[in-house]
Amino acid sequence: MGKYSDSAEWEDIVPISQDDGGPNPLAAIAYTEDYSEAMSYLRAVMAVDEKSDRVLGLTEDIIQMNPAHYTVWLYRADILLELQKNLVQELEWLNTIAIKHHKNFQIWHHRQVIMSHTPTLPSSEISFLARMFAKDAKNYHVWSYRQWLVRRFSLWDSELPYVESLLQSDVRNNSAWNHRWFIVFARYTDPEKHSIKNNDADSQVEPGIIEREIEYTKAAILMAPQNQSPWNYLRGIVRKQGKGLVGLKSFAEQFANLEKEDEVRSSHALDFLADVYAEEEENELSGKALELLARRYDPIRKNYWNYRRSMLGFEQVGA
Known about the structure:
Elements: H1 33-47, H2 53-65, H3 70-82, H4 87-100, H5 105-116, H6 125-135, H7 140-153, H8 156-169, H9 174-185, H10 198-203, H11 209-223, H12 228-241, H13 249-253, H14 267-279, H15 283-297, H16 302-311
Helix pairs in contact: 1-2, 2-3, 3-5, 4-5, 5-7, 7-9, 8-9, 9-12, 11-12, 14-15, 15-16
């Protein structure tokens, strides 16, 4: 990239330099010479709201130097839409940026803006997201974008097999557990408010879904009892049922027998059982489960477990 000041294409533009606070700024930002010049030209064209091919190229240069500059992304999107550019080509260009900077929020927001003006899902989009998850299976920005994509193009039915494949590869992938919950239940929610409509939403869940999810989650716990994600998922399903945890008591006791302290296989089962016993008003057993957590199986959160014990009327577990 040569200097803009040497280009005949830009000779009609008077660049606007950054004002850092006068000729002797207290804390001037140390930009590179190329970046400072490009931004000076961007300020000038934005001042007159120019949207053209040359400005589109300018935004590309700046993004290559600083892909986190959200103002440039917003202006680029405006140019693309006003000039009615090929948005699939924009996605292809965006892929190269996303691979290099996959944790950059602005890239994924821009992708969502572009995709919101794309009437059909490009055939390469899902495979590209799989490529991104291969780099980082727990990338929050990619997951957020994928959930938006599912809503945008109603991909509910094809997503469940995909998320199951992810959990088969890594049952501890908490992002995949979160996505499973979204796929199973979010189709019954308000897409504008993104919140469950309480009983109205739950009443629309197809018969057998709750039971299927309970069995799936129990099988995942059997594979990795010390994995917190499915325990949390199980609690959520029980809340969907509108029932207590007592019905899963015998299942949880497989992993935490209070009479055999050395054979506890899951601290999360102890936590689960503490709530089960509290529901049954078996406060001694609930307090014992919490005592084991505070003293032996999760002492780093001793203060939390002690607080739970105090709510049952027990003294704190000592150091």
